[in-house]
Write a structure and sequence with these properties.
This protein has three domains: about 120 residues, Butyryl-Coa Dehydrogenase, subunit A, domain 1 (Orthogonal Bundle), CATH 1.10.540.10; about 110 residues, Butyryl-CoA Dehydrogenase, subunit A, domain 2; about 150 residues, Butyryl-CoA Dehydrogenase, subunit A, domain 3 (Up-down Bundle), CATH 1.20.140.10. The chain has a four-stranded antiparallel beta sheet, with no helix packed on it. It has about 400 residues and is of the alpha+beta class. The protein is built from 13 helices and nine strands. Helix 3 crosses helix 8 and helix 8 runs antiparallel to helix 9. It is globular and about 80 Å long. Strand 4 and strand 5 form a beta hairpin.
């Protein structure tokens, strides 16, 4: 693969870089711009999104005919990394989870323009937020939805009736459009189905917004209860029994877009630490001149570059039509670890200032801890790699 960006993509990323620097980064300095969950206030977000749209920096993953930028997945990698230099960047340009993954999968699988106009376009336009409803409390589904999902969808005439419990559902508190996974049969591969429903539909409720380390994406993570939610047959996604396939279509690219954003955040940690250690003197020299500090910087820079190479390779494979399952898993493991390393190292370099809220480091440190859990724990992805090696042997490292 060629690692050079096209002139148009390079120009776009430069424009984005300037926008983040001039319009977005200053917002982080004023705590009045943060909501109670330590994200940008929704009242502030709308105006910033209008600026991003006016600058031609809106919805990079969506087709141009629907108001997006129509970028390839490799181009997403450069764009998302640049956007995530600021903790507010991705949500302002509409490439943040969970909307990012939901838009991508709906754009691929919705069968008609009418359905896209109803369910997808409002998310692209930023008029509504969305949520993907799959994870369940024990003994229900987590990393093994096919084998453990307990939420059911029973066909009754021209409708499906949903009953069950879900939790740790990202964005649910502010979402209006939902994709819910439920069991429609006991078939081990084709027993799950996916459905669309709207926030105002009766028969379900948000039990609670789950407190966690934070900071939270907009809408947090919530516990939901379904008690007879009726969904019309036309809001079944693809065909009955295609739920696991839809999950795979969504989660592969979605996991990789996490990596793209996390790389931008890891670089931001380095940036903060470099600015501090270059100006902070102790025992007659700046901290950045000390060998121990140089080694710390070198280690993080090394890990970031490994993560970028793995991410770009996986993105390239996806662009070629591959599922890139092992490539995405390798990137997810590496970049999740790297973000945590970068935030931890940055705090160590900045000392008390890094631990305080005077920089974004403590925000990034808490955020980084969830990276090894979301969209599959690191241990699950290592199992994916082990199974691939068992199946492929030396072919695991094929150049093809």
């Amino acid at each position: 693969m060629d690692f050079n960006l096209s002139p148009d993509t390079e120009k776009l990323c430069n424009t984005l870089r300037e926008f983040i620097e001039e319009e977005v980064m200053p917002l982080e300095k004023d705590r009045d711009n943060f909501n109670e969950y330590e994200n940008i206030k929704l009242s502030k977000l709308d105006g910033m999104r209008a600026k991003a749209r006016a600058a031609g920096l809106w919805a990079p993953q969506m087709p141009k005919e629907r108001g997006g930028l129509g970028l390839s997945i490799v181009e997403w990698a450069a764009f998302y990394e640049t956007a995530a230099r600021s903790i507010f960047g991705p949500v302002i340009v509409n490439c943040n989870a969970p909307d990012d993954g939901n838009m991508s999968v709906l754009n691929k699988i919705l069968a008609t323009d009418a359905l896209k106009d109803k369910w997808l376009q409002p998310i692209i336009d930023g008029d509504v937020r969305s949520s993907f409803v799959m994870t369940e409390p024990h003994p229900g589904s987590g990393s093994d939805p096919a084998g453990m999902m307990l939420t059911t969808a029973e066909k009754k005439g021209d409708r499906y009736v949903i009953n069950g419990d879900k939790w740790f559902i990202s964005g649910a508190a502010v979402a209006k459009h939902f994709i819910v996974m439920a069991r429609t049969s006991d078939d081990p591969r084709n027993g799950l189905s996916a459905f669309l429903f709207h926030r105002d539909d009766p028969g379900w409720e948000i039990v609670r917004r789950i407190d966690n380390m934070g900071p939270d994406e907009h809408g947090g993570v919530c516990e939901l209860k379904f008690n007879g939610l009726e969904i019309p047959e036309e809001h079944l996604l693809m065909n009955e029994g295609d739920g696991l396939r839809i999950t795979q279509i969504r989660l592969g690219p979605a996991r990789l877009t996490h990596c793209m954003r996390w790389l931008g955040m890891a670089k931001r940690c380095m940036e903060i630490a470099n600015a501090y250690t270059s100006s902070r003197y102790a025992f007659g020299q700046t901290l950045s001149e000390r060998e121990s500090v140089k080694m710390m910087f070198g280690n993080v820079a090394h890990q970031i570059e490994i993560g970028r190479l793995l991410t770009m390779h996986a993105a390239w494979k996806l662009d070629q039509g591959s599922r890139a399952r092992k490539e995405v898993s390798m990137a997810k493991i590496q970049v999740a670890d790297t973000l945590h390393l970068a935030a931890d190292t940055g705090i160590q370099m900045c000392g008390a200032k890094g631990y305080s809220k005077d920089t974004a480091l403590e925000w990034l440190y808490r955020y980084a801890r969830c990276a090894r859990l979301v969209d599959g724990a690191s241990e699950v992805h290592k199992m994916v790699l082990a199974r691939a090696y068992e199946k492929e042997g030396d072919g695991f490292w094929s150049w093809g």
